[in-house]
Amino acid sequence: MSRDTSRLKTDIAGMNLSTPLIAASGTFGYGDEHKGLCDLDCLGAIAAKGISLLPRIGNLPPRIHETPSGLLNAIGLENVGVEAFLEDKLPFLAKARPACIVNILGESFDEYAQLSSRLDGIPGIDMLEVNVSCPNVEEGGLSFGVDPDLVAKVTKTVKSATALPVMLKLTPMAGAKLAETALAAQEAGADAISLINTIGAMEIDIERKRPVLGNVSGGLSGPAIRPVALKMVFDVASMVDIPVVGIGGITSARDVIAFLLAGASAVQVGTGLLIDPDLPCTMLDGIEDYMDRHGIARLSDITGALELP
Amino acid sequence: MSRDTSRLKTDIAGMNLSTPLIAASGTFGYGDEHKGLCDLDCLGAIAAKGISLLPRIGNLPPRIHETPSGLLNAIGLENVGVEAFLEDKLPFLAKARPACIVNILGESFDEYAQLSSRLDGIPGIDMLEVNVSCPNVEEGGLSFGVDPDLVAKVTKTVKSATALPVMLKLTPMAGAKLAETALAAQEAGADAISLINTIGAMEIDIERKRPVLGNVSGGLSGPAIRPVALKMVFDVASMVDIPVVGIGGITSARDVIAFLLAGASAVQVGTGLLIDPDLPCTMLDGIEDYMDRHGIARLSDITGALELP
Amino acid sequence: MTSRMTRKTAEDTLHKTVCRVEGVSKEGGECVLLTLDAPEIAKLAVPGQFVMVKCTDGACPLLRRPISIASAREDKIFLLVQPVGTGTRWLCERKAGDSIDVIGPLGNGFTLPGAGENILVSGGLGAPPLLFLARILADMGKQAVSLLGAGSSSRLVLKNEMAAVCKDVFISTEDGSEGTKGLVTDLVSKLAPKSTANIFACGPLPMLARVAEIAEKASSCQVSLEAKMACGYGACMGCAVPAANGGYLHVCTQGPVFPSKLVMWRNPL
Amino acid sequence: MTSRMTRKTAEDTLHKTVCRVEGVSKEGGECVLLTLDAPEIAKLAVPGQFVMVKCTDGACPLLRRPISIASAREDKIFLLVQPVGTGTRWLCERKAGDSIDVIGPLGNGFTLPGAGENILVSGGLGAPPLLFLARILADMGKQAVSLLGAGSSSRLVLKNEMAAVCKDVFISTEDGSEGTKGLVTDLVSKLAPKSTANIFACGPLPMLARVAEIAEKASSCQVSLEAKMACGYGACMGCAVPAANGGYLHVCTQGPVFPSKLVMWRNPL
Ligand SMILES: Cc1cc2nc3c(=O)[nH]c(=O)nc-3n(C[C@H](O)[C@H](O)[C@H](O)COP(=O)(O)OP(=O)(O)OC[C@H]3O[C@@H](n4cnc5c(N)ncnc54)[C@H](O)[C@@H]3O)c2cc1C
Ligand SMILES: Cc1cc2nc3c(=O)[nH]c(=O)nc-3n(C[C@H](O)[C@H](O)[C@H](O)COP(=O)(O)OP(=O)(O)OC[C@H]3O[C@@H](n4cnc5c(N)ncnc54)[C@H](O)[C@@H]3O)c2cc1C
Ligand SMILES: Cc1cc2nc3c(=O)[nH]c(=O)nc-3n(C[C@H](O)[C@H](O)[C@H](O)COP(=O)(O)O)c2cc1C
Ligand SMILES: Cc1cc2nc3c(=O)[nH]c(=O)nc-3n(C[C@H](O)[C@H](O)[C@H](O)COP(=O)(O)O)c2cc1C
Ligand code: FES
Ligand code: FES
Questions:
Q1: How many other C-beta atoms are found inside a 10 Å radius of the C-beta of residue D8?
Q2: Distance between terminal CA atoms of chain A?
Q3: Could you give the C-alpha distances from D128 to D33, D48, D167, in angstroms and in order?
Q4: B251 has a pLDDT exceeding 50
Q5: Residue A36 contacts C, CB cutoff 8 Å
Q6: Which residue, C82, C76, C132, C139, is CA-closest to C107?
Q7: Lowest mean pLDDT among B107-121, B168-182, C149-163
Q8: Is residue C48 within 8 Å of residue C201, measured between CB atoms?
Q9: Separation between Cα atoms, residue A249 and residue B70, nearest integer Å
Q10: What CATH number does residue A258 fall under?
């Protein structure tokens, strides 16, 4: 590729990213679905679709529904399972220029432990991203991510099973406890934090008197949640010392910069990529233009540069 | 007015509503701002702009900002204070056909107590709605509403200071604890529950590198949050036995019915009213049409009628 | 069955292109036939494939909408759009000279038949991909019979276009305003497809289920399914429909065309 | 000052009406002048008031946009719109015969002057309410001088309309492409308004602040302010701007026109 992205470089917990744009887990498949639609070189990293120990067939359809400026989904973490991932999917991701982040999810501490040690030491993997939005079967179905103690325990479990850098992906369902979960992750040894995952939501088909999703409820993503995500990133970034990756409704260079100003070191693009797989390239143009106009030499000079009144 | 709304009647904790549509607090002023724009008879009740013990001048501007399908606001609860309210504003509300709900907010238990006893026994007031989203000065600024114990204590405080029916207005910032706060309110004697208040959010002006709101962050309302609100109403309504009033992004008859199906006995319309003050009348047409098509005799037959797969 | 002229998209190249509307014409049922200048897509497209279309100049609606390729000729693709909601209404308001942002060609297409009679069954807005198929069959010198069903005469689409390339066109309308009164599936029953017949069907789910049933003894029966789609190219896993053997099929990459036997027809959604 | 010809909206009746676009014409700076058939609003409107306009056929953008009434005549109101974002761009694309959903007339208007010279100062898109005012002053037999400022000649609006009803029109452009090179506030300084002058100003905040300063000794100085608005009629408390005496002014009901002395000019936002 011809673009000079040197001033767009960033570093998250030792993982070098050529650009601050990461494809969000679950919205870019395993990176090989986009032939011709996306110049992968515009991405700093790809967070692969969430991987579990065993394959999952996912939820009953319908699985997606459009809401005002939002996407409601209940995919149910359909994935090929860790063995097929390593066999069939990792080779492409490992070869591609963007760094490779493997997003993992478990329904018990043991599952997180097994997954992390299976992925430990495998060439081509640059980081684990730990999805804690999954229901916790051991603790009665509430997600791990809403409880700071459970977040700490998951973090320790993963950290002690792998030498890879570990990024905890926080869920907005923690509500007022969100900053606490971030601090818990940091204290338990997380190398970075990403947020937000989708916000619990539902929609009803009033003619059929039924939820529109086969799974009754799902998670909301897209521009609708962006202002909520931005505040959460701002709140968490002002509390923790480890790098923060901002996620939620990012669909333009302007949005990327807003998240960086709020304290993120990089961002993930999810729903926006589903709609415009070439978005990363357009975004880089906009980011460079912004840096030119504001005389900004390094991307890290944007991170946290928000001025408060 | 000529419309026969008899089958649209509903009852919330002994308060009779001629229609299930309530103007949400803070989006309909004190009910007298709309001359000619809204046929008040289409509303079952008006929840007045939140009232505090003393007048509040509100937050530094800018106070509002549009986001994708949403409205971000940080009005700062500007209001005339309880004495001016009783003197200047209540007379109109008391005279109007819709029931009168007074929305109150305090920064301490004592303020809630004083407000509630001041409003007790005043003719023309049909219900108190307790806003617990306000920062709690006694407990270090976190809002009352995110902690079930504090919600219980506020409820008891208000209940013991007034004979009026009391509706607790829950905040989505309680996150995973939301249902617990609802149960706490019910156990502490709340007569009804309304939800949701706005979701914490922010937006950044990247050119000025500053938050767009004078108050840094604010609350998100409007269609963007509707799927989140609907799930919260569904979750809470399946837990509590007292009536639930659904709020959040409702802008059409379809939306009203979705919230009723999810378990609400009535709804509040906020942002939608700011944009289309005649929305209640349009909505009633749509609700009646739906009832006709589905052969529904009473509104209460819709409440909670959602079928699950 | 013989040659599989289409392929999985993952093995090929997709195109995202902002293309010019070359022409707009009205069809039955308030539908609009759009001619788009999209050389890259036109070159690759095969019958049964679709495109994902951005239906706004701004940001609402958020998601692209899947629309079948109703034919591809030289540098052009044709889309037949029925205005049912915000997105399709916006599409139907386009004028010649406007621009539309399109991703394609997506999905697999119909597997082309070897010998035997070819029966194309369209219900409602099922005709577009079958017109494309009929044209390709005609180009290959194969004969086809087209069965077109609609609610009423005014809502029939692509009748003349079909007649131009098919041996026969049979029509049914629910209100009897044109052709046989009844459902298009009644026409299929009446034709009593032989075991050598190749059936191709596109339309509402109940119609497809009934066709699959009638066609049990046909040589092949391929159906084109619909599902809500967020991406259209295999990234989101949103477009699942239940498979006959348990598990799910993904309409955007494994479909939209499936052998009817792969689909779970009882309570499919 | 004498008669207050306008009143607080809360004491009067507001109208929400879906009105027909009667005419569309291009103005400088890509602006569009819309003529709307809105008899109820036209009847009540006074200079300085505005309408809240829904800028979509669908649901985005969510909020109405405030637009000044640039004149009202018989059953018609005129709006001059500059395309700066989604909403105003949509407005500028309207054609004669389209419908627009409008609420008005909103806010208070200018307090009409008694004796003295009248100086109307418009910067950028400040001209619309001042044109309405100039026309009413002319109807009343009062003379006015209009100062029009813009970035460059091509962005000047309503110049001829102003000339038709004002004694004099003075122009300034920042690039010197028409009239005096410089800011419109330089023209105000040069005119050195006497203590009997009535000044009416509309434009960007820094310009208004400077006018307020120069006009300190004038008989009266009224400014029309902007603020983001969610409702436009006093229900949301969103449109606050800091007042000179502490506290806030509400642009939609107490304004948009204020005596300049009421406004806090230092760091107003
Ligand atoms: C493979 C495929 C091919 C299609 N080909 C055509 C075609 O050639 N011509 C044509 O007019 N239509 C076609 N459709 C249907 C078309 O995609 C929908 O009508 C369109 O998405 C509706 O969008 P809307 O914004 O107009 O309606 P909305 O306001 O979104 O909703 C109206 C109706 O459309 C349904 N719908 C909404 N979004 C989707 C989606 N992403 N996918 C499927 N259904 C949806 C809704 O459930 C609702 O019933 C096809 C669909 C699929 C899956
Ligand atoms: C009392 C009043 C009278 C006005 N009269 C006119 C007029 O006669 N002609 C005219 O062209 N414009 C007028 N404006 C400005 C006009 O309202 C804004 O240009 C318009 O709201 C921008 O909307 P948008 O969707 O095009 O832009 P957006 O995409 O929303 O934003 C573009 C710019 O407009 C600003 N803006 C957005 N929403 C509002 C809002 N609700 N109120 C104020 N500013 C906003 C944004 O901060 C941004 O700088 C007036 C504003 C006020 C308050
Ligand atoms: C269809 C879909 C599938 C997703 N799957 C996953 C997943 O497997 N693991 C995960 O951590 N997050 C998953 N997410 C959440 C996204 O990674 C992201 O956190 C969220 O969508 C918010 O970002 P956005 O608004 O940019 O989409 C998924 C989101 C969508 C829309
Ligand atoms: C401008 C504005 C002011 C508000 N003021 C109050 C208030 O004073 N008290 C309160 O309980 N809620 C207040 N709210 C919250 C609304 O009552 C409602 O809970 C919220 O806006 C969600 O509903 P909506 O999406 O229909 O607007 C306010 C909301 C807005 C937009
Ligand atoms: S629509 Fe995204 S995988 Fe099929
Ligand atoms: S805009 Fe709502 S009060 Fe002024």
A1: 11
A2: 42
A3: 10, 9, 18
A4: yes
A5: yes
A6: C132
A7: C149-163
A8: no
A9: 13
A10: 3.20.20.70
Position A117 scores a pLDDT of: 97
Residue B197 domain boundaries: 5-52+78-205+220-301
Is the bond preceding C256 in cis, omega lying within 30 degrees of 0? yes
The total number of structural domains that make up chain A? 1
Q: Which residues of D touch C95 (CB under 8 A)?
A: none
Which one of B227, B257, B307 has the shortest CB-CB distance to A220? B227
Domains contained in chain C, CATH given = 2-106 (2.40.30.10)
User: What contacts D11, CB < 8 A, 6 or more positions away?
Assistant: none
Q: For position B224, what pLDDT does the model report?
A: 98
For residue A136, the model assigns a pLDDT of 67
Q: Beta strands of chain C (E only): which ranges?
A: 15-26, 32-37, 50-53, 65-68, 71-73, 76-81, 99-106, 118-123, 144-150, 168-173, 180-181, 198-202, 220-224, 240-242, 248-250, 257-259
Helix axes B226-237, B178-187, angle to 10 degrees: 50
The answer, yes or no, to whether the previous bond of B196 is cis (omega within 30 of 0) is yes
What's the burial of A252, exposed, middle or buried (CB within 10 Å: 0-12/13-18/19+)?
middle
Using the beta-carbon criterion (under 8 Å), do B64 and D238 form an inter-chain contact?
Answer: yes
Q: What is the mean pLDDT of residues B225-239?
A: 98
Amino acid found at D7 = R
At C4 the pLDDT is: 30
Residue B212 lies in a domain: no
Q: Which amino acid is at A69?
A: S
Residue with tokens 């109208």: D15
**Rounded-to-integer distance, Cα C228 and Cα C250, Å:** 11
CB atoms within 10 A of CB B17: 24
Query: What one-letter code names the amino acid at B28?
Result: F
Assess whether the C-beta atom of D81 lies below 6 angstroms from ligand 2.
Answer: yes
Please confirm, yes or no, whether A38 is among the known catalytic residues. Answer: no
Number of alpha carbons in the 13 Å side-chain half-sphere of residue C118: 26
Closest CA to B71 of B279, B287, B259, B275: B275
The strand pair at D257-259 and C198-202 is best described as unpaired
Cβ of A246 below 6 Å from ligand 3: no
Q: Where are the alpha helices (DSSP H) in chain A?
A: 81-84, 90-95, 109-119, 148-161, 178-187, 226-237, 253-261, 271-275, 279-294
**In-domain check, residue A89:** yes
ipTM of the complex: 0.95
Tokens matching residue D77: 């109101």
b/e D53-73 (16+ beta carbons within 10 angstroms → b): bbbbeebbbbbbbbbbbbbbe
CB contact under 8 A, C59 and D60: yes
Per-residue DSSP letter, C135: H
CB contact under 8 A, B61 and D241: yes
Question: Crossing angle for the helix pair A253-261 and A279-294, nearest 10 degrees?
Answer: 60
Pick the closest to residue A194 from A7, A19, A47, A16 (CA basis): A47
Q: At a CB cut-off of 8 Å and minimum separation 6, what does B271 contact? A: B27, B70, B71, B221, B222, B223, B249, B251, D62, D230
Which residue in B126, B146, B128, B127 sits closest to B136, CA to CA? B146
B307 is a domain residue? no
Stated as kind and residue range, the H or E segment containing A169 is strand A166-169
Q: Is the CB of D231 under 6 A from ligand 6?
A: yes
- B67, part of any domain: no
**What per-residue confidence (pLDDT) applies to B141?**
67
HSE-CB at A164 with a 13 A cutoff on CA atoms is: 30
* Average pLDDT score over residue span C230-234: 96
What is the best residue among C63, C229, C258 to mutate for testing ligand 5's pocket, by most ligand atoms within 8 Å of CB?
A: C229
Both tokens assigned to D164: 């038709």
Instruction: Answer yes or no: are the C-beta atoms of A86 and A7 closer than 8 Å.
Output: no
Which residues of chain D does B43 touch, with a Cβ-Cβ cutoff of 8 Å? none
Using the atom order of ligand 6, give the atom closest to the CA of residue D234: 3
Let me know if B98 is exposed, middle or buried by CB neighbors in 10 A (0-12, 13-18, 19+): buried
